[in-house]
Amino acid sequence: DTVLTQSPALAVSPGERVSISCRASEGVNSYMHWYQQKPGQQPKLLIYKASNLASGVPARFSGSGSGTDFTLTIDPVEADDTATYFCQQSWNDPRTFGGGTKLELK
Amino acid sequence: QVTLKESGPGILQPSQTLSLTCSFSGFSLSTYGMCVGWIRQSSGKGLEWLANIWWNDDKYYNPSLKNRLTISKDTSNNQAFLKITNMDTADTATYYCARRVDYGAYYWGQGVMVTVSS
After folding, report:
1. Alpha-carbon torsion (A11, A13, A14, A18), positive or negative
2. Pairing of strands A96-97, A101-105
3. What is the chain A residue with the closest CA to B61?
């Protein structure tokens, strides 16, 4: 299986820029997607295919990367961005998700 | 407007079969390229993709559970289904259905909690 590795947690101050990384154990082309999940809610798509902003998502969110290394950037971070962020690949079988990065605001 | 909603038993006993239904609107599973997938989330294992079913009835399963999973659809009634046999306490999770998982799933159901307990 393609293992997606994310840092467990990050803490940033509002107004700062934050980068959340996702490293794949094998290449996934550009088929990496990013989700935001708040407690008690379903995941919300932020970025699809590495760098495409999903409909209705603020331009503060951006994605980059290809192959095995991907990054979700939030700039500037706002208080409402407190959530867990997951990456997901859909290039290799089975589809897999990262363990999630919990973003906390200072 | 696209919506999806999962339904299921809530609680079942070990060794029983879980039957889940995803009722959706705003799209058709007979449309070329369309796909519905099932994903679950437990505190122990995070998000886990289970299976996809495509407009042409192609089906893909997570090999770690493949022998236990059956995905199907009823195009006429805009529903997708997932059956998981031989349920165990480790299968306790929130189960989601989502549209077009392979392209980044923009639409998800609200999820249904399933508890396996004797």
Report:
1. negative
2. unpaired
3. A94
Neighbours of B13 (CB within 10 A): 9
Contact B102 A86 (CB under 8 A): no
Encode chain B (118 residues) as per-residue pLDDT tens digits: 999 999 999 999 999 999 999 999 999 999 999 999 999 999 767 899 999 999 999 999 999 997 999 999 999 999 999 999 999 999 999 999 999 988 999 999 999 999 999 9
A85 touches chain B (CB under 8 A): no
Residue A100: its chain B contacts at CB < 8 A?
A: 46-47
User: Among B78, B2, B22, which residue's Cα sits nearest to residue A45?
Assistant: B2
pLDDT score at A26: 98
Closest CA to A33 of A98, A80, A93: A98
CA of B47 to nearest chain A CA: how many angstroms apart?
Answer: 6
pLDDT digits (tens, 9 = 90+) for A28-73: 999 999 999 999 999 999 999 999 999 999 999 999 999 999 999 9
Beta bridge partners of B10: none
Number of CB atoms found within 10 A of residue B5's CB: 14
Quick check: B101 and A54 CB within 8 A? no
